[in-house]
Amino acid sequence: MNDMSLTNLQAGKTTVKAEAIEALAGQLRGRVLTENDATYDEARTIWNGMIDRKPALIVQCAGAADVINAVRFAAENGLLVAVRGGGHNIAGNAVCDGGLMIDLSPMKSVRVDVATKRAWVEPGATLADVDKETQAFRLALPTGINSTTGIAGLTLGGGFGWLTRKFGLTLDNLLSVDVVTANGEMVRASLTEHRDLFWALRGGGGNFGVVTAFEFQLHELDTQVLAGLVVHPFADAQTVLQQYREALETAPDELTCWAVMRQAPPLPFLPEEWYGKEILVLAMCYSGDIAAGGQATAALRAIGKPIADVVGPSPFVGWQQAFDPLLTPGARNYWKSHDFIELSDTTIGILLDAIRQLPGPECEIFIGHVGGAAGRVAAEETAFPQRSSHFVMNVHARWREPGMDQTCIDWARRLFEAAKPYAAGTAYINFMPADEIDRVEAAYGSNYGRLVEVKRKYDPQNLFRMNQNVRPIEERGAA
Hints:
Layout: E1 9-11, E2 14-16, H1 18-27, E3 31-33, H2 40-44, E4 57-60, H3 64-77, E5 81-84, E6 100-103, E7 110-113, E8 118-121, H4 127-135, E9 139-140, H5 151-157, H6 164-167, E10 174-180, E11 186-190, H7 195-201, E12 210-217, E13 219-220, E14 224-233, H8 237-248, E15 255-263, E16 278-286, H9 290-296, H10 298-301, E17 308-309, E18 312-315, H11 316-320, E19 332-340, H12 345-355, E20 364-369, E21 391-399, H13 405-419, H14 440-444, H15 448-458
Parallel strand pairs: 4-6, 5-6
Antiparallel strand pairs: 1-2, 3-4, 7-8, 8-12, 9-13, 10-11, 10-12, 14-16, 14-17, 14-18, 15-16, 15-20, 19-21, 20-21
Helix pairs in contact: 8-12, 12-13
């Protein structure tokens, strides 16, 4: 901590004395940052370039003891708390204005026990950290599709990607957590300890405490999978999506295929005349025997007359990073999402109309193919409520210039409203922007009331409210 920071600090409506800040710094293995520190701006910068918030204090934690001290300090001083893992959340909940940001990004340890096929992961680890460590032993954890995403937020909100249909959601593979609750106490939550808290953490996001360690069940997975892209002209999109929908009805759990619609980036395997033109991409991965994958993907690859087909054997770690170049930090992002039980012709028509009105070259719609093992878990078994949906839509507005904000946001909102009558009503909370506070209860469906009870027990003052917030009150709409 810079000596210049040792003055009384105005944190929101609270004045924090310099002596208290100095005492906190002395308790830590990590660091306390204020705006006077050289690395402050770097520490407060997160993936979504629209988020420009300035915490009064940033505690960069080196371990669980630092987290305990930071939580207690925030509670004692009445500070707003934000918790950063990977800093990837679209709503920007990793950083707050005028409060205390608990930065877990230095805590990146991943330890694998090959004999039990388990991994212990700290909350600052990214999906790339987890993938590289587990694949060294031909093991894997089902996670997401962008390797720079943090494991903590992904897990607590759900976690779905290429292995979900075979092995379930990330949270379905969670065995236990160490979590610092709002009173600054560390507890272990699992199926046998603090079962109510463990239930809530599997889908309830950061509402109930700060997780300092995750214990996961891993699965055997070869280092090579059959994966890649099949790119179609947008003019064929309606027929391609209809046949895609039909092909998935008999897809084995090992096969996942997502549909992406956008303007073509300058991919090396595409003819240059397609750069910047609207395309539909089928992105697929078969997590099993390569030869069997060839048969399983045949129906999808036989659809239409693609511009390019680059499906083939691929290192799983490499495939997990394939979309990273399109999701680099710093751009401005706004998302809207729906769950769908089915992809009806009407819904397809709405999606295609939106692509014809794309506001920019980085805006896209993707349809995530889920179900399989994730769909064979009862809705009440975890806080994550939607086990019946076969597809998750993400309307991903992405752009660079602030002057494009309203145009891109309006495009996403129009599509969201047009598709709403055909959606399941629930939502994937990791895809929810900051302006969807009124949607949280519906997102959790019948599980919401139970979440409120757990919130009231473990965080009655709502210290952890920088999230898709479950309020510890019965009256709806109360502050």
